[in-house]
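Hey, quick one: can you model this chain's 3D structure?
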Amino acid sequence: MTNPPLKAVTLTHVRYQKGDQYGHFLAWISLVPVFISLGGFVSHFMFRRELQGMFFALGIIISQFVNELIKTSVQQARPETCALLEMCDSHGWPSSHSQYMFFFATYFTLLTYNRIGTLIRKQMWVAGLLVWPLALLTMHSRVYLGYHTVAQVFAGAALGLVLGAVWFWVVNSLLINYFPVIEDSAFGRTFYVKDTSHIRNVLKFEYDNAIAARKHVSYKRATD
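Sure thing. Here's the predicted structure for all 224 residues.
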């Protein structure tokens, strides 16, 4: 009896040609979505507890679910080069990496442009010089490393851009009306979940209040 083929957990398993330094660099770039998810959103929940960040992460989860649904329905194969990587046990259209990064870049840019959260309009350079180049490099890395065709990464990018814009509208036009309810709920009170969308410059607000609290008499008594 033949054994069934093995399937790997491919969260960080990215291959490149030995000796290809550029491929090595792009392999790390290809892992940016993992770094954003684990290092960004998880740490954001631990230290910030912002509803905007939580719904940002929820949108990405929904986007990736849509991606998997489309892949399963279309069932377009990955390019032939993928066979050399021994990583062709899933479908290729649309690219989930490209979709993830373009969703993230779109939502992040709209947050920044609308001065929601800790970013202000003057910091749009973060999106222009860091986030969007990373999105484009991730898309390029998937083709260069042989995991996707050009059409597959462009499809993922387009879908991520559209879903990112739509989800931003849903959150900040509809769901934001329920943020006070979440703040006042048992979940919100237990985990100190909050919404600071109404504060134009959260970093300055928190800084000013931290300095004021330190100088306040009751604060000094509490720390004595």
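One thing worth noting: Residues 146 and 188 are 45 Å apart (CA to CA).
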